[in-house]
């Protein structure tokens, strides 16, 4: 089949550069209404660009069709369930988009003086208080741009706390089930990572924690519910061990969608937490960003929060820059404001009871899937140093997500990767696979509260059907997907500078 | 307003299917001592209609550029955003999807990243670019980290004309790993190459220069480049992408890394975010680059496709040895930039840049003619410039805001710049002659 016929079915869309035709324009601009001089009147010859950037020359209709066609190659949660564990891909309410697009918000400049930004400052001030209440903590910075950025900021705050007490300390303990961003952020603030193994119940081994922790430990970073979707029931003991050693307890807020209105990080003993507004608070993921990663802290850490913070004096709002103990800025301006508008709208729409229902429904949905799939997809954990996986008993409920193991499919030569790909053929996105690292052949399923029983049942049917296919026709599963715009891609071939952009040319200087 | 589809009957059926009588039975793993015993202290739920009214009112309390002529810049700019940008980027397929973990059903996003990377390489004249960073400031800080790891040197020099937020962010990032940072003050609005030469040493990893700088001035990049490379350090340039329609590219100047804020390309200012950092470098640094990168490949039937690549740099593989902790990109903002650059095209970018030059120079000359006003620096500029004002700039900005003009930025807000009575004024292609004349006329009242 030739490429042109394929293109009609949008199976293969050229690059926008390949659509370029000299002289085409996608937008018209006005003629200068002020005196226009030759550029040499403004710029020295040595600073003028001789070779213009080779941008495409295309018409508006070319652009509209190109990106519309490209869009149709994407799977997305407005189409069907997106059970990507740990990422909380819930429905993104449409009204939130309209709120963020209000010109009073979208066209407000961050360098305007505070008196012309009172509406936005009020929103920031109130949102930071809502988040503090939800987390049971005392102060919040909205500045970090994403979850990993919030984590980095939280670590900087903890480092500032220790430095302020005279000893920066050296180490941060994290579980072996942690997100990869945790150890990467630890390195970025100049600390070393010490990994603590998970026990046979899939939880923190408190005895081991007590052994590992010492006066060089700055913090223990934990996700609760943890990345296996299990609640750390001994959280108070953990907090005591950490605090007795003079260290701080950090909560990765990735799984906050499980605890809204049920329990709060501060009440559990956490000192610092980051929020993922793009997970728990429904801001759209945008194909992988923008997000927003606010950080909440207990009262004695508030002074270390990034500068500035929104404050209220009487009836007026302003940014407070006078914060001598602050870690400083972690980015320009005030943060991902457009995301904050959406999160604010989400919290106001739900109210306190609505938020609790969010978590309760997320938990029920996850347990329903977990129990109905456990025959084919059991939960297990591979304890550090052990030869065999330990099953997690069915009577232990998961929280908003669970992690199943696919080791039993190995005898048919099928991996969890294959099952994930086959799920695409059934019209679903795949769960998170091969994470956390302590579950072999892991599939992490998070339905969220915005899936109906019907859509969940369809997902369960698809997963069950695939498990049966593995037994009857493993080849079909191994070669999946069969119905997607492209089949499996050769990842190794993409890993060279010349494949990273269309115009690669070896620099002449080398 | 709830977004939960299941009804009580649905929940009942689900609970029966798994043999529980209430959701409470799933929460028994949470010790009572940490359970919340009452509702969260938050305002009660609003209907969608009430939400519109409440938030509409908040937005209306702002004085934004839809109602006021804006001359505010300083790192984000009121450039024109063509209608097609929002319509296309607002499609659910782009807006609501996540990271392209399953490339077979994510080719739209992945090809978009590849096109973005190509455009950034074209603009900057460098070999490789990533899928984007949080913003210009964090991209700048990450450039410092890359330079340190590539050169194994621990000292970073910042030109005094670097955006104050970028300066502060570099200091924040540098603290934990123990990188020594020094800011070199400007002379007459730019960094003096001799001053830089005397500050460079054999432990300097890089020099970070913004061009045009925070004051709008063009730096003497060619001289600075010679001095930096003679000392074996890397040259990092923070650039305005719109300026690259007429101003020489970082690659052609000899820079090793180019970063910047990409909001000007098809994104609204949105009170500072979400922003769009871009990051481009010489190809020898590709394996040290932070962030996501998409690459071109083929599928099993030899059809062209795109995947995330070189992931051995990243946190989910390398964990504590990763080049950065960044886990996402500003994908939607990068897509908006890609659509913008496609619409505006090769000729359009030059035209926008030229309009900025014409209009900003017209404004600067008219303001400089006013008694009591003068241009702070005698340097070439692109779309932004500093004027010394006869009255405190903060007062001028406040007074003129009441008349519907967003005059600029009072540089007194940045004490580290040590610039008295400095007002930073930005003029994009969006400002009309009538608006500029009105600005000049009202400023004249303070003469």
What does this protein structure show overall?
- By secondary structure, chain A is of the alpha/beta class.
- Chain A has 3 domains: 3-71, no CATH class; 95-350, Type I PLP-dependent aspartate aminotransferase-like (Major domain) (Aspartate Aminotransferase, domain 2); 360-492, Alpha-Beta Complex (Aspartate Aminotransferase, domain 1), CATH 3.90.1150.10.
- Chain A is built from 14 helices and 14 strands.
- In chain A, the strands form 4 sheets. A 7-stranded mixed sheet of chain A has the order 1-7-6-5-4-2-3, with helices on both faces. A 3-stranded antiparallel sheet of chain A has the order 12-14-13, with helices on one face.
- The radius of gyration of chain A is 26 Å and the shape is globular.
- The two termini of chain A are 42 Å apart.
- Mean pLDDT of chain A is 94; it is low at 4-8.
- By secondary structure, chain B is of the alpha/beta class.
- Chain B is 37% helix and 14% strand.
- In chain B, the strands form 4 sheets. Chain B has a 7-stranded mixed sheet, sandwiched between helices. A 4-stranded antiparallel sheet of chain B has the order 11-12-15-14, with helices on one face.
- The model of chain B has no long low-confidence stretch (mean pLDDT 96).
- Chains A and B meet through α2, α3, α4, α5 and α6 of A and α1, α2, α3, α4 and α5 of B.
Q: What labels describe this entry?
A:
heterodimer, A: 510 residues, alpha/beta, Aspartate Aminotransferase, domain 2, Aspartate Aminotransferase, domain 1, 7-stranded mixed β-sheet, 3-stranded antiparallel β-sheet, 14 helices, 11% strand, B: 447 residues, 2 domains, 37% helix
Helix content of chain B: 25-40%
Helix content of chain A: 25-40%
By CATH reckoning, the class of the largest domain in chain A would read Alpha Beta
Number of self-contained structural domains of chain B: 2
How many DSSP E strands of chain A? 14
Basic shape of chain B: globular
């Amino acid at each position: 089949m030739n490429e042109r016929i394929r293109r009609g079915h949008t199976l293969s869309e050229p690059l926008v550069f390949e659509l370029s035709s000299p002289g085409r324009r996608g937008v018209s601009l006005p003629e200068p209404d002020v005196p226009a001089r030759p550029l040499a009147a403004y710029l020295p010859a040595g600073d003028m660009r001789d070779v213009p950037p080779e941008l495409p020359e295309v018409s508006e209709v070319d652009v509209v069709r190109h990106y519309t066609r490209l869009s149709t190659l994407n799977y997305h949660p407005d189409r069907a369930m997106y059970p990507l564990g740990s990422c909380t891909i819930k429905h993104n309410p449409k009204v939130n988009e309209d709120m963020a697009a209000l010109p009073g918000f979208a066209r407000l400049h961050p360098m305007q003086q505070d008196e012309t930004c009172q509406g936005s400052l009020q929103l920031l001030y109130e949102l930071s208080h809502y988040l503090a209440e939800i987390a049971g903590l005392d102060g919040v910075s909205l500045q970090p741009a994403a979850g990993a950025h919030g984590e980095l900021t939280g670590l900087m705050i903890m480092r500032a706390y220790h430095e302020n007490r005279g000893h920066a300390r050296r180490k941060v303990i994290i579980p072996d089930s942690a997100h990869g961003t945790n150890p990467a952020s630890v390195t970025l603030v100049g600390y070393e990572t010490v990994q603590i193994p998970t026990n046979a119940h899939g939880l923190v081994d408190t005895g081991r924690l007590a052994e590992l922790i010492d006066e060089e430990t700055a913090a223990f970073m934990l996700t609760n519910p943890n990345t296996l979707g299990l609640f750390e029931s001994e959280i108070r003991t953990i907090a005591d061990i950490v605090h007795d050693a003079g260290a701080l307890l950090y909560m990765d807020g990735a799984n906050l969608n499980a605890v809204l209105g049920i329990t709060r990080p501060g009440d559990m003993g956490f000192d610092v937490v980051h929020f993922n507004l793009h997970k728990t608070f429904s801001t759209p993921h945008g194909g992988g960003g923008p997000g927003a990663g606010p950080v909440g802290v207990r009262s004695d850490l508030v002074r270390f929060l990034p500068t500035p913070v929104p404050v209220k004096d009487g009836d007026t709002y302003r940014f407070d820059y006078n914060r001598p103990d602050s870690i400083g800025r972690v980015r320009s301006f005030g943060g991902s404001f457009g995301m904050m508008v959406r999160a604010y709208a989400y919290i106001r729409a739900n109210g306190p009871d609505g938020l609790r229902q969010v978590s309760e429904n997320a938990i029920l949905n996850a347990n329903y899937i977990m129990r109905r799939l456990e025959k084919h997809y059991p939960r297990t954990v591979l304890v550090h140093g052990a030869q065999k996986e330990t099953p997690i008993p069915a009577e232990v409920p998961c929280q908003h997500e669970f992690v199943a193991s696919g080791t039993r499919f190995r005898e048919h030569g099928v991996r969890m990767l294959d099952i994930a790909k086959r799920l695409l053929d059934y019209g679903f996105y795949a769960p998170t696979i091969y994470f956390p690292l302590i579950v072999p052949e892991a599939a992490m399923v998070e339905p969220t509260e915005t899936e109906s029983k019907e859509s969940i049942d369809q997902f369960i049917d698809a997963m069950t059907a695939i498990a049966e296919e593995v037994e009857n026709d493993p080849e079909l599963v191994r070669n999946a997907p069969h119905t997607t715009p492209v089949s499996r891609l050769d990842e190794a071939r993409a890993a060279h500078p010349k494949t990273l952009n269309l115009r690669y040319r070896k620099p002449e200087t080398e | 307003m709830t977004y939960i589809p299941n009804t009580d009957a649905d929940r009942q059926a689900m609970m029966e299917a798994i043999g529980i009588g209430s959701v409470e039975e799933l929460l028994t793993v949470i010790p009572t001592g940490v359970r919340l015993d009452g509702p969260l202290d938050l305002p009660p739920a609003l209907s969608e209609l009430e939400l519109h009214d409440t938030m509409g009112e908040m937005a209306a309390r702002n004085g934004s550029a839809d109602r006021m002529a804006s001359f505010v810049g300083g790192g984000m700019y009121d450039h024109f955003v063509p209608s097609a940008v929002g319509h296309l980027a607002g499609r659910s397929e782009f807006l609501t999807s996540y990271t392209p973990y399953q490339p077979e059903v994510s080719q739209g996003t992945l090809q978009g990243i590849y096109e973005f990377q190509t455009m950034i390489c074209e603009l900057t004249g460098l070999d490789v670019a990533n899928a984007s960073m949080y913003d210009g400031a964090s991209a700048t800080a990450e450039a410092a980290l890359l330079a340190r790891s590539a050169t194994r040197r621990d000292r970073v020099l910042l030109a005094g004309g670097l955006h104050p937020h970028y300066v502060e962010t570099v200091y924040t990032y540098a603290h934990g790993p123990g990188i020594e940072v020094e800011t070199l003050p400007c002379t007459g609005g730019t960094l003096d190459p001799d001053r830089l030469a005397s500050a460079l040493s054999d432990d300097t990893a890089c020099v970070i220069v913004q061009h045009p700088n925070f004051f709008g001035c063009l730096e003497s990049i060619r001289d600075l480049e010679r001095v930096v490379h003679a000392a074996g350090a890397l040259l990092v340039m923070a650039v305005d992408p719109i300026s690259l329609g007429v101003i020489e590219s970082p690659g052609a100047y000899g820079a090793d890394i180019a970063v910047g804020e990409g909001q000007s390309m098809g994104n609204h200012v949105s009170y500072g975010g979400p922003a769009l950092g871009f990051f481009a470098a010489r190809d020898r640094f590709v394996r040290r680059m932070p962030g996501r990168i998409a690459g071109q490949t083929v599928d099993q039937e030899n059809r062209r496709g795109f995947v995330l690549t070189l992931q051995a740099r990243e946190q989910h593989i390398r964990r504590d040895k990763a080049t950065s902790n960044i886990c996402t990109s500003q994908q939607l903002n990068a897509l908006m930039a890609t659509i913008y650059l496609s619409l505006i095209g090769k000729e359009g970018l030059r035209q926008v840049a030229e309009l900025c030059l014409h209009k900003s120079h017209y404004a600067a000359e008219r303001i400089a003619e006013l008694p009591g006003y003068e241009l702070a620096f005698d340097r070439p500029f692109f779309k932004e410039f500093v004027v010394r004002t006869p009255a405190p700039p903060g007062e001028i900005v406040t007074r003129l805001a009441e008349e519907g003009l967003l005059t600029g930025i009072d540089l007194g807000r940045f004490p580290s710049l040590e610039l008295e009575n400095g007002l930073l004024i930005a003029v994009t292609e969006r400002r009309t002659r009538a608006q500029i004349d009105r600005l000049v006329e009202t400023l004249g009242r303070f003469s």
